[in-house]
Structure formats: structure tokens, C-alpha cells
Amino acid sequence: MRQEFTLTIFSENRVGILNQITTVFTRRHINIESLTTSESAIEGIHKFTIVIYSTREEVDLLVRQVEKRIDVLKAYSFSQDEIIYQEIALYKVPTAALFEGNEIEKLVRQYGARILEMTAEYAVIEKTGHKHETQELFDKLDPYGVTQFTRSGRVAINKLKKEPLNSYLRKLVKNGVNPDVKIDTQ
Amino acid sequence: MDKQTNTLMEESKKKPVTMTGAQAVMESLVNEGVEILFGYPGGAIMPVYDALYSYKEKLNHILVRHEQGAVHAAQGYARATGRVGVSLVTSGPAATNAVTGIADAMIDSTPVVVISGQVGSALLGTDAFQETDVVGITQPVTKWNYQITRADEIPWAFARAFYIARSGRPGPVLLDITKDAQFGSLEYLYKPTVSIRSYTPYPIIDPGQVEEAARLINLAKKPLALIGQGVVIAGAEAELKEFLEKTGIPAAQTLLGLSALPSDHKLNVGGLGMHGNYGPNLKTNECDLIIGIGMRFDDRVTADTRRYATNAKIIHMDIDPAEINKIIHADAPILGNVKDSLPMLTSRVSNNEHEEWLEEFRACYRIEYERLIERELYPEKPELTMAEVVRRVSEAFNDDAIMVTDVGQHQMVAWRYFKFRQSRSVITSGGLGTMGFGLPAAIGAKLGRPDRPVCLFVGDGGFQMTIQELGTIYQSKVPVKIVLLNNNFLGMVRQWQELFFDHRYASTELINPDFQTISKGYYIPSVEVTKRDDLDKAIKKMVSAEGPFLLEVVVEKEGNVFPMVPAGASVEDIILE
Ligand SMILES: Cc1ncc(C[n+]2csc(CCOP(=O)(O)OP(=O)(O)O)c2C)c(N)n1
Fold it and tell me: Domain A85-151 is in which class?
């Protein structure tokens, strides 16, 4: 069954690593819906969060093919219900529109958004949430003249008790490989 | 080697020594035990070549005639010896010429390190003269690649490159070195890589998986083992034999798995795949257990996967987790090095014999022999067949040569009819099917194993793809024996045109040059044979020649390779004629 999967990939922070990872997807003709990357909680280890539509079998294979890249430490896949995730969206509206009634203010309240910055010409509204929520707010704000809209890729946290990367790093220590990072060895 | 470099080497073992990047490249190669490299010079790699000039005695540089040949030769060397093959090329067009070889090494799991020169780091990304993004280009076809922009990265990058190339499932590594890194200086101290935190070359074997596989083996009535190159790479030939002999399981080989088991071993039932033997293909859908050992269920082996091994449970032993369940679902995977997993399995299975089951394979072989092999080996028509040439040559080498092939009909025929006594005797382009692979690979194989005869089978098409390497053979005096099976056609494509495109021979007929004159131009002794009566004498001449030799045999123009599993069909639909 095709469904949404979120992959988290931990890698070395090396020039070209993004290309190394994405070619695995391109080769199998898989479209990346969303991609976020940043340094992980462990210094020197990079984390990618990638959202795709696929089947369980295909994702399992993808994970192994991504892990096969030498500079990738570990990759994990999660279905929708195994993670908690957010995206962030920014909306720019003319300040004048805000004063033309209280509709925008009402929407901001109703959607749990906030006004990030306001100048004489424009106001920037920020909302975090799932894609359909940030999209809904966009659809509601648009009639008031949204001049810019941007949405981030997904960030996600899994529901497991512990970060599985830590057990991988601990296993390295057990097998005599220096993981070169500070890890709790409990 | 001059005195200066000698002392440099001794000192660098203990404490850091100041040297240039180019010297560090030499030292790193020596530290990795490299003795030979295949290459071609040019602007962006000149500092390294200059350093090489002082290392002539330690590092034997073979000047090839094209960078594709440099990589294929390194591959031939690696496949014949099990060691890492090394090529050295310049930037831009040289690096792109090397790409075919790199891709070939990737898909056939061959350990090679390709060192390419690059423009100075200040010029990167500016479309400088002979700049090409070789790291980007080769990213999908290398196991690892890295651009070195500072001299002090060299020992680290080389140690890592060799470790990655040869460990686990081997593969090609490319190191791209900017010119300033070659000129720059560093404090050289070599530390071999022993582990990489993001890389697990040898997965730890799960005894539970072995247990489950052993259970399936002990229950099986009609088991069949499929032997792949993984057995050869792991050096697990003895472990394989022990396993097979204890269980009495018949074994068939993939294209690259051939020679892991001697041809005349009683459990060897032949080759798998599109042009493999009748029995192994037919019986794939009859057997109740398949044990894939160091193989990857390539589509040339499985044909239509929906109609593959329809009655069998599958045990899949492989070192690469990405191969498990990739093509064929494994009921019992055993992840790990077969060198270790095979003995674990052997100790858990019962002694057994499958005499009746083996007899079924023998019966299949008799059918194949009567309907096909006999007329291929002992034809009644006047034209020579590829098969009879291959068999005569094999016998003339006492069935104990290293067989190298190019790609096409002759490749399949050589694979079917050449015989083997020891492992690492088959060097052919499997996954990529690269025409032009044969001649340079044979050069590398012979230089790696000067003690063994190396015999190349090549078609008139593929020969002309890398024919310039005859120059390498002459210059470096490489005594390879070349058997050119000349049918004046791109035979394999012509066969498909005949069978599946209604005899429409679109651009497959070759109007060839006089290969005898070409050979003469390169000062390589040669003979042309057109008649059966002259064959044995000519072969004898080739075998007893001291140096290189070209034996050109004009064979039937429109011969076909059979048996054949037609494209899209099931293994059981194999046809004999
Ligand atoms: C580089 C490359 N180009 C094209 C092909 C497609 N191809 C496969 S076999 C073949 C014919 C080979 O002809 P020849 O070398 O004469 O050998 P024969 O089949 O006649 O033995 C061709 C063109 C290929 N495998 N590799």
C-alpha cells in the first residue's frame, strides 16, 4: 500500500552528501515531497528528514540503499503514526489589510498563528502545523492579499523511547570502533 | 628508487616527514602495498607523474593507450589477484574516459582505486581548462569518492580509499586531487584505516538466521545452490566445497561465480541464466529450496521474477544488506561474509546425498548434449563454431588458464565451453556488459598473475573498441594470448535481430580491417585460421609462444548462442534451439 513515510538519515557532514543521498531516490524514480537538513543533537553528525510516498517494501529497500553510502551512518523510516512532526509557514500581508477590519487578526487567533514582525508596509505571520493546516490558513489569508508565502520542510521526532542512533553508536563502541562523538554509554 | 625516497619511506614509518603532496601519493601507494598502476599522464596530474619518476622501482607504471583501458586493466588485475587495482589519470576528458571502467567495477564489485588529477582548487567551479566535476559524475558509480584539495588530506584519504575499496562488498573509489594539493607540502605520517564509524563492511552474522536456513536445508528434497562471485571475493571456495559435499546439494554458477568450483566437481551442474545450462534453468522451478550464496539474483539469472523459483523456499546469503529482498524475497536471509556464514551453516546441517535429484541434472545435461552441445563441439558443417575453438583452446591450456572475455556471443560461448580447475579464472564484464573490457582486462590479469596463462576471447566488434591497447601489450611486453573469434558481425545483436526483429540486420554487419596487418603493425605475432584442419596447429603455436600472440579464427557468420531464456520469459521456458 502506498502511503506517506518519513525517513530520518544520519550522516557525516561532508561536501556532496546531499547529492549522495538524493541519487538513491532519483535512481528509483521516487519524488521527494519534503526535505529538511541540519546538524543533529550529536555534534558533527548531520540529520536529514525526508518525506516520500511509497510502499513498505520499497522504503525498506531504500533505507538499506541509503545506508550503503559510506558517509551515511544510519537511516530509519517511519509511517505517519510513528512520529510527531511539524512544518513552519510564513505569510506576508500588507499592514493596511490588517487595519481594514479584524478578519486577519481573527484568523491568526483561530489558527494559533502569531505575528512575527510588523512594519509600516507589511506584517509577517508565522504558523507551525501540518501541511494541510498551514495551507488552510493560506487559503483564508489569501483574499486579503498575501504577498509572499513560504513553507518549510518537515521536522520530525519519533515516538520510540530512545533515539535509535544512540544504540547504533553504542554498538560501534562494543565492536571496538571509535564513534568519535560523545555518547551516553548506558 | 633513489636514495632520497628510500630514506623518506623508512622515516615516515616512525615520525612525520615533510614532503610534497605528490610524494605523499607515492608513499601512500607504497604503504598500501601497491606494486603496479595503470595510467595515462596529462596536465593536472603532472606533479604526481613527476614524483613517480623517482619511484620507478617500487611502483611499476603501465602506460595504457586510453583511460578506459587503465581502469579495465586495474579491474583485470584486481579480479585475478584479489588485490586492489590502481589507475592514474588526469582531469577532464581523461577522467570522463575512466567513467565506463568505474561503472563496470561498481556493478561487478571490483576493488579499484582511481586517482584523477584536478585543476587547482582556486579554479574549481570556474569552467577552467580541463575541469570537469568528476566527483559529481562518478558519485552514483563509485563506492566512495573524495576530492582532495589540501596536501595534508592525502594520507587520510588514501588510507580510507583502499580500506573502502577492498573491504566488505568491494568496489571502485575515486580520489580527485587538485593540482595545488599535489604541489603543496605536508607532514606525512601514514595510518592505515581500520574502521569507519559510518560503514559496516562485515555485518555480524545472526546465528538465528543460520539456524533457520539449516532447518530448511535439512528438510529439502530438491535443493539447488546458486554460486555467485561473493564466494570468490570472500575466498570461501574451500568453505563452499565443504558445505556442498556434506549436504550433497547440486550447485550452479552465475556468470561471475564460475570457477569458484572446479568444472569437473561432481556437484557442479553448470551455469545459470540467459545462456546458462538447460538443467539449472529448468530445475529452478522444480526445486524446493534455493540457496543463493554471494549472488544477487540479477535479471539475467532470474528472467521473469514472477515465474522464478515457483516451488522453492529461498535462502539468501550475502554480505550486502541492500541485496536482501531486493529482487527475490528471502524466506531465510543470512546477512554476512560467506567465508564465515558457510562454516556456521555446514556445522548445523546433516550429512546428506541427493543422488536421484542429481541424476535429473545429468539427464538434462544429456538432452542438452545430444541436441546442442555435440553439434557445437563437433560440427558436421565446414564452418568453424565458436564452441569448438573455445574447447580446443581450453584443452590446450590443460583447462587451467585464466579466461578473460569481451562482451557478446563469444563471451557466452567461452563461458559455456571453457573449463576450470582453480578459482579466479573467469574475468568478464558481467553487470555492465562493457564491450572493450576484454583486451585491457587481460593485460591487467596477466601482470597480476604472471605465473598463469591468460587467454582472452574477443569478438571483432569489441576488439575494435579498445584495440589500441595492443600498443600497451607491445610496449610493456605483456604475454597475453588473444583469441579473436571473427564472425564479421556484431554477433549478439545480430542474433537478437534474427530471432526477435525478423532478420532485419540493422547496422550489425562489420566491414573489418585486416587484423593480421594490424597485429603486425604492433609487432605481435599472429595467425589466421579459416579451416578446421589448421586449428589445432595454430592453437599449439599460440600456447607455446613466449610472448603475446593473436589467434584470429574466422567462424561461422550467423551462428547463434543456445540454450536461451528469451527476454521476458520464465527460466523454465529455456529453449535449446
Ligand atoms: C560498449 C557497448 N556498446 C554496445 C553494446 C551492445 N552489444 C552487446 S553485444 C554486441 C555485439 C558484440 O559483437 P562482437 O564484439 O563482434 O562479438 P560477438 O557477439 O560477435 O561475439 C553489442 C553491440 C555493448 N554491450 N557495449
Answer: alpha beta
Decide whether any atom of ligand 1 lies within 6 Å of the B460 Cβ: yes
Q: In the numeric block, which cell numbers belong to residue B181?
A: 594539493
The pLDDT tens digits for B336-362 are 999 999 999 999 999 999 999 999 999
Taking CB atoms within 8 Å and a gap of at least 24, the contacts of A21-26 are: A21/A48, A21/A50, A21/A66, A21/A69, A21/A72, A23/B139, A23/B140, A24/A62, A24/A65, A24/A66, A24/A69, A25/A50, A25/A52, A25/A62
Q: Where in the sequence is the domain holding B230, given as residue range(s)?
A: 207-360
Residues B227 and B263 both lie in one domain: yes
CB A6 within 8 A of CB A78: yes
Q: What percent of chain B has pLDDT over 90?
A: 97
Which grid cell is B306? 514472477
Q: Is B308 helix (H, G, I), strand (E, B) or coil?
A: coil
Query: How far is Cα B438 from Cα B403, in angstroms, rounded to an integer?
Result: 10
Which residue in chain B has the smallest CA separation from A46? B198
- Which residues of B are catalytic, by number? 67, 129-130, 179, 492
ipTM of the complex: 0.90
Of B38, B73, B65, the residue nearest B52 (C-alpha):
B38
Opening angle at CA B190, ends B187 and B196, nearest 5: 120
Q: Please tell me the class of the A3-83+157-174 domain.
A: alpha beta
Give the residue from B39, B165, B82, B52 showing the smallest Cα distance to B448. Answer: B82
Q: Which residue puts its alpha carbon closest to atom 13 of ligand 1?
A: B490
Q: Is B491 in the pocket of ligand 1 (CB under 6 A)?
A: yes
pTM: 0.95
Residue among B480, B449, B487, B450 at smallest CA distance from B542: B480
